[in-house]
């Protein structure tokens, strides 16, 4: 359930702690401390206060912020013994549908990481595709203790920001979302291309691609909703697939068999989850172009 | 061994029949009849004479031209009991490396076709990719007897033309070859892109792609040789893959990870095996275009 | 002064007639008749009522709608003896700044037209560039009496629609405006190009071009306002000019002298004044592309 | 008249001196000295020998190489009192068709330059457009005496190289020529665009453009000959103009009036006279692209 900042400013403290207690996993004390500093003019200020509450906490308590976090694709997760938000976030990243081999890989990494740093590997899963997750895991496992402590706390804050943004609305909202969108222009007719089937796949590996969106262009040549929006765009390689041949056939064009352009694929990478990625297809039956638009 | 038309015009008839006897499978009589009409000013005239020899032959003999042909991916082929040229042609089309299921599929089609028309399915395999071969086979199996007789003889002539073009050089050469080529332009630096890894794959099905060429661009942004040349370009869907990200990294550009453009893929179809298909990549680190060039 | 439809529905009839009297030149009787049919749910309904009032009027009165119109760039116009709206409209089209030769040309056309059809040449000047105006004038002068009567009345309604749209706001507004816009993308940096000088010129003839807008791209690579908007886009040939070389120099790029791309010009035509014309520039220092976008 | 290097190697010295005497203006002694060093394996070696003859000459004689040169668009030139080659070169650059004002401007620059440096302004006119010529003149007038001495001798050698390349053919030819070419691709039909009118103009100033080539595309979408070839491409800003609208009309397309694309213009600059500039137009009726190709 979502709160309006104004309501939150005046609600009984107990309700506020109940509402925001889960923003930091197993650490309601952050919400508790923050609630004493109300009212807040902007959501950003509310989050800043939470950050400060964390920074002001004694070392032991700060450390519980890390140790309290569930492992990635870990046994508790599989057994459902982790916080509801974590379950949802890991599921959204497909971590609940891993092969046995992948689970084993994560188990090894988790064990190695905990042995090395004394707390579980923490990452904001919503900002990563599966390949990026493993790349990041391996890279951070090789980092220094000091760097990892910093990385872990930074990720805890990223996770908290996204959870808070979903809970509280109002002025000065947190920028935790990016956008991935497309549109199709028909340069042979000079019109937006309507009714083109569009598919977005995340390229997990040379042999695995997962379709993450399937839709069709509207009269304006755009999709009614962004392909990915209202959340970070996971760091990953993607492939956009357009049914251009079917579009031209439907328009009554006389195409050779096979047509020169049938399913057009655009491969591109996303490195900035909070960025705007507009990847258009400007096409005729015999040529096309794309670019990172705005 | 390749003959010059002039030599052929003056050589002993026996040698000519020996040289051209295999142009029409198991039908040296075509070379025999043709040799009596020498000299020929152009290779085209020589082939025209062969065509006329076929047209002038009695029905029974013409029919042997069809019945004498080996089945596609058939038992004789697998047992090596077919003409050397046929072995090479079927191998080039990958018909010697089919899965058991595919062999079975061909066996069924061959049997059905022979039962229906009384002669084996004949097609100029050099003009087809594997998917197109099966599509064509299924389509022709559904044709009328009259149409199939015409189709089969037309394919016999196509096969003969390609064999003859490989055997005899000189004026008025036969047009039996197409070309598939590419080049890469770097619009950020205004120079041809040198050292870009290029791969051409034939898309056999949604799950199978076979790499048919692997090379690198030269100082002119082109490949030293066409990706496919000196032969028909098999009717098929293709994917060109360019190592653009590696090219930019090698040039010292500072790219995000993953880069927006890493391996760029261009999918296109070839419907005219004797056509010229120039498919360039005009690219910067943040956009690209392609088109059917000349 | 602009009216809200609601107010208009309930205002004293005299005020309404005063407000809308000039929508049809020298014909307050249209507003008079229309005002009796209030209230109107939508502006479109109000205009429909005006159209019907015209259609219902006796022939003599309908004809005054045409005869009452001022000549294009005619003597009365130059002497300021025409309705305020007409003065503004003709001035906006540059008809108050014609050379003597051009005035003479219009005088001849006006005289010939009036002699042939018995009423002045009427056209919605806001929908035409100067070249189109003369082309249209010459073409219509060659038309049949019946066709011209229809054309003239259609133009009277177009003029009225634009005037009404400017006078009355509310639900169901009339579609009398088009839009001409652009944006600039930098495919070498993958960002919108900010600070690019943009100029839009109307190509009047091989030797004359009139700058109609001069601006600069913002952080989103767009112009803060459309180059032409809130009105019909005059039918004409246009040239967009972009200071791309200066943009690259400002970005610190090391360009040759002269640079390959300095002032980039895009020439295009507008044939549909109520249409949306988005004409982007997607450019690197060594190449660019444009297309009719949406 | 053109010589073959072999002939030149064995011809009587007097003939050689007669043939090459004018390569260095009013300095047959260079050819004289060079002729003694025959035979030459490559044209480059011949030119190297000429360069060395100049370098080995006493200061007084070297200076005559500069003082002997005619002024640019100077009185002697206008009076025809300069070497035939110089007349042709200056005419090709349009220096014989200057306005009185332009002649005056050159007279002032010539006088100022000679007063400052003691020898006339020398530049290889074939490498410059008119605007570049004046820009260069003004810039060099501001240079140091030492730099100008170097510049002047470098230009004398450039002029000599071009003259020699025209006189002597054979192995190791001198690279004194660049190339400017184009081609037109129709991405709506997937074919080269045949019969497109192409015009190349040199942009001399904001108000003056001089057409330097006028032709039409052939069946391959190219022009039969490069727009500029076999000589340096003058340093200048250019505009290519393509009759795309007429091409589409001729193809029977139903275009709006005016069409979105009618005469397409591409503006670009040439900074490297010996470079290859391929500037294609890849177009459909509603969009186009260009880039510096190879």
Automatic annotation (TrEMBL), chains A, B, C, D:
GO terms for molecular function: 2-oxo-4-hydroxy-4-carboxy-5-ureidoimidazoline decarboxylase activity; hydroxyisourate hydrolase activity. Residues 180-293 form the Transthyretin/hydroxyisourate hydrolase domain. Pathway: Purine metabolism; urate degradation; (S)-allantoin from urate: step 3/3. Keywords: Decarboxylase, Hydrolase, Lyase, Purine metabolism. One of its GO terms (biological process) is purine nucleobase metabolic process. It catalyses: 5-hydroxyisourate + H2O = 5-hydroxy-2-oxo-4-ureido-2,5-dihydro-1H-imidazole-5-carboxylate + H(+); 5-hydroxy-2-oxo-4-ureido-2,5-dihydro-1H-imidazole-5-carboxylate + H(+) = (S)-allantoin + CO2. InterPro entries: Hydroxyisourate_hydrolase, OHCU_decarboxylase, OHCU_decarboxylase-1, OHCU_decarboxylase_sf, Thyroxine_BS, Transthyretin/HIU_hydrolase_d, Transthyretin/HIU_hydrolase_sf. Residues 9-165 form the Oxo-4-hydroxy-4-carboxy-5-ureidoimidazoline decarboxylase domain. This is OHCU decarboxylase. It comes from Methylobacterium durans.
């Amino acid at each position: 359930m979502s709160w309006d900042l104004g309501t939150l400013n005046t609600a009984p403290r107990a309700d506020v702690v109940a509402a925001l207690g889960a923003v930091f996993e197993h650490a309601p004390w952050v919400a508790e401390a923050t609630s004493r500093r109300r009212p807040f003019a902007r959501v950003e200020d509310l989050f800043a206060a939470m950050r400060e509450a964390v920074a002001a906490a004694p070392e032991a308590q700060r450390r519980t912020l890390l140790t309290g976090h569930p492992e990635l694709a870990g046994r508790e997760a599989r057994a459902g013994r982790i916080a509801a938000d974590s379950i949802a976030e890991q599921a959204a990243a497909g971590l609940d549908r891993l092969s046995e081999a992948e689970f084993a890989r994560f188990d090894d990494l988790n064990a190695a990481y905990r042995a090395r740093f004394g707390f579980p590997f923490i990452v904001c899963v919503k900002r990563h595709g599966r390949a990026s997750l493993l790349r990041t895991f391996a890279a951070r496992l090789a980092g220094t203790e000091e760097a990892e402590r910093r990385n872990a706390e930074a990720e805890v804050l990223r996770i908290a920001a996204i959870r808070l943004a979903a809970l509280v609305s109002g002025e000065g909202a947190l920028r935790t979302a990016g956008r991935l969108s497309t549109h199709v222009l028909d340069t042979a007719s000079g019109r937006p291309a309507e009714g083109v089937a569009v598919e977005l796949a995340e390229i997990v590996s040379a042999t695995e691609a997962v379709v993450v969106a399937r839709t069709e262009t509207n009269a304006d040549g755009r999709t009614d909703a962004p392909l990915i929006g209202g959340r970070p765009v996971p760091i990953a390689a993607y492939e956009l697939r357009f049914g251009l041949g079917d579009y031209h056939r439907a328009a009554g064009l006389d195409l050779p068999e096979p047509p020169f352009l049938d399913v057009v694929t655009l491969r591109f990478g996303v490195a900035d989850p909070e960025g705007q990625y507009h990847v258009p297809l400007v096409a005729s039956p015999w040529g096309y172009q794309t670019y990172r638009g705005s």
